[in-house]
């Protein structure tokens, strides 16, 4: 496919979530192109009836196809506090399309403790990773003021749940040392993306979550029960610092309770998995490791 050919929907970073969005777009009769890096990812994109365009977002990009709908799902790079990948992508697009959706992260809010968090809360990123996301949000909003930013928390689904950790009996941080966690099933995230990509909602920033934050122990204990194994042992923060990677600790250090009231009110989206327990059961049915 020529990179300059116009498409209906262009998905940059067409990974697990992007492929699910691509399938919805193809079913709606769209001409869909997914931008990927690897041959394996290209095969997945083609498997749902979309075209694949292999591009290295860390290299110079000559031109990308014009589109009516842009869905940007690629993460920033791993260094610095700016999203150079997004800068290259936006420079390679001939014009901002009518509909733009960026999948960001709830990490831009930083640590919010026990507070409920809606979209009126100011961003306060605590890590370089989150600051890169804030940079990306600001870049795409400046390029396309109508762009809708979806701030997603932990994404779970088939192959995206800690089955191996729980089966191995690895410990988790005790609730007395940790805060609130939030999540969204990958099928719900894809549904939210397609919903806002086909309609221009009233706002441009939404928390894309199931709206049911939990303590960490509840999530792991539920998964253990579904797997038929003992609940994971609980450890305090001191022991966690000795056992866990710096990356994992950075996630554990933050707490927030995300509200999805604005998204549900503005879009009318109906969650497939408003209860993480149902989502875990469905995920296990699609996860070969749990069989």
UniProtKB/TrEMBL annotation:
Pfam families to which the protein is assigned, alphabetical: Epimerase
Q: Name one GO cellular component term.
A: cytoplasm
Domain named NAD-dependent epimerase/dehydratase is located at: 88-208
Q: Please, which domain of life does this record's source organism belong to?
A: Bacteria
Residues of the signal peptide: none
Q: Which GO terms describe its molecular function?
A: aldehyde dehydrogenase (NAD+) activity
Q: Which InterPro entries match?
A: Epimerase_deHydtase, NAD(P)-bd_dom_sf, NAD(P)-dependent_oxidoreduct
Q: What is this protein called?
A: NAD-dependent epimerase/dehydratase domain-containing protein
Organism per entry: Salinisphaera hydrothermalis (strain C41B8)
């Amino acid at each position: 496919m020529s990179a300059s050919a116009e498409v209906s929907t262009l998905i940059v970073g067409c990974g697990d979530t992007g492929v699910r969005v691509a399938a919805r777009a193809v079913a709606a009769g769209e001409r869909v192109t997914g931008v990927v890096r690897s041959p394996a990812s290209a095969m997945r994109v083609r498997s749902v009836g979309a075209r694949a365009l292999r591009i290295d977002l860390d290299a110079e990009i000559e031109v990308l196809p014009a589109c009516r709908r842009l869905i940007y799902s690629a993460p920033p790079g791993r260094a610095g506090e700016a999203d150079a990948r997004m800068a290259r992508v936006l420079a390679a697009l001939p014009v901002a399309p009518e509909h733009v959706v960026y999948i960001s992260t709830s990490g831009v809010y930083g640590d919010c403790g026990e507070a409920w968090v809606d979209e009126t809360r100011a961003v306060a990123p605590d890590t370089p990773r989150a600051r890169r996301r804030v940079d990306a949000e600001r870049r795409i909003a400046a390029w396309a003021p109508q762009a809708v930013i979806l701030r997603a928390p932990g994404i779970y689904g088939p192959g995206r749940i800690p089955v191996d950790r729980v089966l191995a009996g690895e410990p988790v941080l005790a609730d007395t040392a940790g805060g609130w966690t939030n999540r969204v099933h990958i099928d719900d995230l894809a549904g939210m993306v397609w919903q806002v990509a086909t309609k221009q909602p009233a706002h441009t920033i939404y928390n894309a979550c199931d709206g049911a934050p939990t303590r960490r122990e509840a999530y792991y204990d539920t998964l253990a029960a579904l797997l038929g194994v003992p609940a994971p042992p609980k450890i305090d923060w001191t022991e966690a610092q000795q056992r866990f990677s710096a990356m994992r600790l950075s996630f554990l250090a933050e707490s927030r309770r995300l509200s999805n009231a604005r998204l549900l009110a503005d879009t009318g989206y109906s969650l497939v998995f408003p209860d993480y327990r149902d989502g875990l059961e469905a995920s296990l049915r699609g996860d070969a490791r749990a069989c």
